[in-house]
Each structure stands twice: as structure tokens, then as C-alpha cells.
Amino acid sequence: MSLSASERRQAPVDVMICGGGSAGFAAAVRAARAGARAVLIEAQSALGGVWSTTYLAGPSDWRRKTALMREFEACWEEVTGRPVEQDRWGETYPWVKDSFFSSPEWLKVVMERLALAAGVRLRYYTRLVGVEMRAGKTIAAIVTESKSGREIWPAEAFVDATGDGDLGALAGCGFDIGRPDSGATQPMSLQALITGVHEEEILPADATTPRKKLIEELKQAGFETSASGPGLTRLGPGLFKLSTHHAYTGTGLDADALTRATVEGRAELAGAVRALRQLGGPWRDVELAATSPLIGVREGRRLHGLYTVTRDDLIAGRRHADAVCRVMFPVDVHSTDPKTHQGYSNEGVAMQPYDIPLRALIARDVTNLTMAGRCISGDFYAHASYRVVGNAFATGEAAGLVAARAALTHRAPADVPFAELREQLGEVEWPLRREHGADEFKQG
Hints:
The protein has 10 helices and 18 strands. Helix 1 (22-33) runs parallel beside helix 3 and helix 1 packs parallel to helix 9. Helices cover 28% and strands 19% of the residues. The chain has 2 domains: 8-180 and 299-441, 3-Layer(bba) Sandwich (FAD/NAD(P)-binding domain), CATH 3.50.50; 191-291, Alpha-Beta Plaits, CATH 3.30.70. Mean pLDDT is 90; it is low at 426-444. By secondary structure, the chain is an alpha/beta fold. The protein has helices spanning 22-33, 67-80, 104-118, 166-170, 209-220, 255-279, 311-316, 380-386, 389-408, 418-424; strands at residues 8-9, 13-18, 38-41, 121-123, 127-134, 138-146, 149-160, 175-176, 191-195, 231-236, 239-243, 287-291, 302-303, 323-327, 333-334, 344-345, 354-357, 369-371.
């Protein structure tokens, strides 16, 4: 990208993190705590990404895999003034065990407090638009656009936590997207917050009652949803998340598709609330409080790394000496073709708990780039398992740490020995030290 002399050039830093979701937040905190000058840019107005701005509102595959996760929960309790309430879905589905749900607004505050305390420089409302390369395979700087104009941000090391692999693609990394045969991606989903539900009339005797009640009531109201398994999740007293929507056409890399899916999703959610309200009963006072400011995108680019996590790794429950994350979440493919079904399944891939190695977080085609979250190196089925918040958080920590170590010692991330990284992070409960009963995670 050619730049004029009028663009503003920021002072060089050690680690530049692009994307402020769970992965980018964790990467920035760990990089800063390792002594690196860390900057985190985010196009939206808050941290948390899918967890906060798309109203996911709860982290699957959480399990407190790292010390930072445990610290996060302690900070959450301090900020909210309430204990973390473990979600009862874990009684039914072990892979979401230790998850918790709450208003996404608390998440934003907790993440900002921890990031700023670590010394991370935050910059919101700033969009990545280009890169400056050095010697063809090394990123010298990123280029952004914001109300401050065009800016150039030089750094020693970079972390792609954009979810869609935007930084890696701009830098020339190879990538895959969607199914290997067709390129079809899992649907996007818009979600809503609702209030006014008379929850004492629908609260669970078991963990699945709210979802079953919602499905039955929408059918009674004659309202058809684009997702066959609409959901209702309690986020706090009087506050629920409503999920009904699947957008089956287009990808999160297409602005027209994003616009169309958002408009359709908002109309569907409003229609569902109106239909429930007309039923009366526990829904008589239901109100649409908000639709998510960002649509949830399940699939973007999967950047090529030094190792690719595959379907075979999941089936075998493969372990690695350089493991940075133990994945417990099953293969969760939301239908890519509504003519077949409108739900989700594992498509016959019965996984066992498996490791993500550090090599899957290190870019193959760019010397100073690491990846975190759903844009790490994996195939379609592996991505459908590891893409959830708990694993984004853990891979973010690892990506930020190795980037910081590489920057501070003027090496490429691939040249930082894993033993050196582990020694630096002795407080982390490394996945190879954890064992869980395999029967707990068996799938059909």
C-alpha cells in the first residue's frame, strides 16, 4: 500500500494486536505483562468481540484453563458485586461445564479494567486497512483508518486476533475458508436481549426447560425461525438472550452479505418477540430491549500456520509437546444448507479432548505474525470445535506471550523454544498437566 507524507506515523512498539475479542484481549494482557509495549486496536467501541458485542454472553469450553481465566472470574465478581453463577447447561452438556452467563455490559468493563491495569494501550474505533511489508515476508507496520485519519503503526511482532484473519490476508498469508469442497461457511446469527419475561413461570426444573418452552411457544404462535433450535438464556434477573436466527447466504467477508443478514435477523427477532407477546402468559410483558450491534460470524479465514489442526487430530484426541490449549468442545457445525436441515450437528465426527499446539498459532508465510482465536491454522471440522470463547482466550494468551518474547529478544516467534515460553509462564496450568475422564466427553 502506497502512503503519502501526510499520514501520521505512531512511535514503534513491541507487539501490535489487531482485534479486541476474547483472543485479542488475552493476547494483549499477556504481552504487556511479559514486559512488551503492547497496543490493541479494535474497530468497535468495546472489548469482548463475539462474547460481548454479538451478545453471545457466555463462554463455552471455559473450564478455567489458565491462571488469567481464574483472575478474570475474580475481577468479574469484584466489578459486578455478585459471584459468578455457573451455568446449569453443564449438567446436560459437559463441554460447556464451568461456563457462566451475564449481561455483556459487565464483560466490557472487566476486560477494560484488566487490560489497562496490565499497561495495554487501547484504541477503539480504529479499523485495519493495510500493511507495510519488509523483505516480502515480514510485517513492518499496519495501516489503520479512524477519526484520527490514516495512521501507520510500526511494531516488532503482530498478533492477528481479528477472527476473520484480516491481518494475515493483508500480509499475504495463505488461508482456507469454509468447506473444502464448496467453500460454504456456517451461517451468521444476530441475537437480541429481551426483558419483561415472567421468568418464575418458565424457569427450569432442569437445564433445558427454557429452550424447550421457547420452541413450543413459537410453534404455538405459528412463528417460523430460520434456526431450528431457537434458544432462550437467562443472563440475570429479568434479562434474557433470545436466539432464533441463521443467515445461510454470504460470508462475513462480504459487506453486502453482512448488511443483508443483519437486516433480516433484526426483523426476525422483532417478529419473534411480537409473536410471543401475543401469546400472553409468561410473555405478556416481553420487550425487545436490544439487538446485537454486531452480527455473530462463525467462520472467516483460517490462516496457514506451521501446523494445521485436523479432523484426524480430533478423532484421535491428539496430544502435543508444545500444547497451549486443551479443547473439550465438540464439533459443532451449524447447517451450511437449509435445504438439508436448519440446526447443527457434529456430522459424524466424534472428537476426544485434543491439544492445540503453539505451531498452529505461528504463521507459515509471514515471519513475525502469530494468530489467535478462530483464525488459527485448522481445517473445517477442527475449526467447528475450537472456535468458541474458552479456546480463543487460551490461544490468545499463548499468541501474545510468544509474540512478546520474540519482540523483546529480536527473534521470530518460530525461533522461540517452547520450553523458554513455558518457563516464563510458570503460573499457567498447562494442558498436558490436566487429565479429564474421556467418558465425560463422548459423542454420538
